[in-house]
Design brief:
Blueprint: H1 15-28, H2 32-61, H3 63-70
């Protein structure tokens, strides 16, 4: 697969978001850009699987409540 050219983008973060991103990057020994790009990639490519897992977790953990609501 041939990598596509990079596209420049400005991302405005709050002070708290910037601090969190900086902390995570330092913990992982990566740049803030690498951490942010990884998070975006994970969110956009793994969302359907995460959604299914969340639904299954709620269905399992809240089975009794769901059953009562269905009556």
């Amino acid at each position: 697969m041939v990598p596509s050219p990079a596209v420049a983008m400005n991302l405005r973060l709050s002070e708290q978001e910037t601090a969190s991103l900086r902390r995570k990057a330092e913990e992982e020994g990566r740049s803030m850009q690498e951490v942010a790009r990884s998070a975006i990639r994970q969110y956009t490519t793994e969302r359907p699987a995460r959604l299914r897992a969340a639904i299954e977790r709620i269905r399992t953990e809240d089975a009794e409540l769901i059953d009562r609501l269905a009556r």
